[in-house]
Structure formats: C-alpha cells, structure tokens
Amino acid sequence: MARTALFQHPDFVHHETGPDHPECLERYRAIIDALENSSLQSELQWHLAEPATLEQLEANHDRDYIRHVEEACLAGTGQFDKGETRVSHESFQVARLAAGAAVGAVDAVLAGACDNAFCALRPPGHHAERAKAMGFCLFNNVAIAARHARKAHGLDRVFILDWDIHHGNGTQHSFYDDGQVFFCSLHQYPFYPGTGNADEQGIGAGKGTTLNLPLPPRTKGDTYQNLLAGPVADAVAGFRPDLLLVSAGFDAHRDDPMAHMDLTEEDFGAMTRTARALADEHCGGRLVSVLEGGYEHKALAASVKAHLRSLLAVE
Predict the structure, then answer these.
(1) What is the chain's Cα-based Rg?
(2) How confident is the model at residue 315 (pLDDT cuts 50, 70, 90)?
(3) Residue 145 belongs to what domain range?
(4) Of 85, 63, 106, which Cα lies nearest the Cα of 283?
(5) What's the confidence (pLDDT) of residue 205?
(6) CATH assignment of the domain containing 135
C-alpha cells in the first residue's frame, strides 16, 4: 500500500455560494462523510491545509486582482463572471486555504513524507486566469502548486494532467509560453469555456508543451484509457517531468448534471491507476491530485473514493 496524504480543512464549507449553486459546500461534505465512513479513514494520512501566502498567490495572479478578490469577499456579496462565480465574506480566506492545500501537498510529496497526495478542496481553480475569476474559480490551485514546485523546490519540469470535463483554460494560459510546464487536457468539446481545441499547442518557448484532447459527448471510459495509455503516456515520457499534477475533476461521471459524458467511478479508478503508473515510471511516483469539478454529490464521493483507492494501490 502506498502512503497517500489527504489535504483538507473543515473551513472549506465557509465558502458560501448561495442557494441552488452547483459549487456548494455539500460537495465537500459528501466527500469527507464518505471517507470518514469507509476504510479510507484509517488508510489515508490526514493533513489540515494551511493558507497560501500572498507571495505564492502572486506567483500566478496579479496583485491588483488578488486585492480585488479580497475586497469583493469582505463586502460579503461579491460576484464575478456575470454572477456565475459567487463569493461570501469568508471566501478569500477559504480560497487561500484551497491554494495552500495544493502547495502543502507538493511540499509533503517532495519531502518524502508521503508517496502521493489528494487535495479535497473548494473552490476549484483551473478556470481562474491571471487576473480573472470564472467558472466557480478564484485562484488557480494547480497552477500555483506548479509554480511553487519550481520556485521553492527547484524542479525543472512539471506535467499537469487535467481530466475535468471542462477545459482548464486558466491553467493552459498560465503556462502557454512556458516550456517547463506541460499542460495536457481531456475534455468535452465544444463546451464551456470554449477553449481547448486540438490546435492549441503553446507558443514561443512553450510550443509543443500543451496537448489538448477534445472529446465528443457520451465518451466512455475505454476511450479515456486509450488516450491515457497512448498520447498522454507518450507526452509524459517525452517531457520527463519531475512531478505529475492532476486536475481531478469528476464531472465526466455519467450521473453529473453539468455534463454529458459516460464515465463511472470505476473508470476514474482505472484512470488514476494509469496516472499513478506514469508517475511511478517517470518521476519517482511523485503525484499530487487536486479536486476540480463534480456536482452530483453521490457520484462525486464514489469517484473520489475510487481515485484514492487507486492512489493507495488497494482494491
């Protein structure tokens, strides 16, 4: 069995998005309740997330934007992205905790305190641009983690694999001209946010370090597995990363109301086994997974459990 860390914090429920919003505190509660009532309770290393520093946020976001988010949250009724991305009084501190969870997980894995890690966090991050909140995201947790891995730990190359059903526009744009961070996405297309065409491959020094694998609605798990074992595995092997980060969205589940894919929790378990095998082969097993989407609570909890069992290498 692997040593798998879980980064979480009870304050993640204090990011309040209002009634009927899909990115709600019940998502987090469903995950934690499911883990606490399973054998995973004792099999995981539980860690409390700590907030990201302003310096860590500024590595990926403009200072004025960070200040704007803080002010909107303190006002208690802030909204971004035409009201789609909502915040409450505590949301700025909770978003710092979310980014800090990803940073802390990177620290733990690179220190050898655990083999791999999963961050059960909210709000999610992969849509957040350098100076724009969108798609329920305030700060780009996985991008902040990648920059921290390079700056604080001196890693040369980081590979980000994003299998959320929505393309991670913010993450792609964070590293589109950066040849040291590879961004690879499997997502429904055309779909929100409208980016992620296969011809988007990076620019300048980053040319060739973006790989988009757009998929039609109702794609099944065997297609995902073939892509992970084929072009994704080839990209990882060619890039030779020091760390694998996963933007783990579970909204491609067949029961998810936000999407139109046909995956099951067993598919997410199989995809995680492949990702873990790639990390084992190419970067000493160093893998950090960060929660993104997933909006049907029962399906989300079941998918996270399958994901964690595969990280632990238990069935």
Answers:
(1) 17
(2) low
(3) 4-312
(4) 106
(5) 99
(6) 3.40.800.20
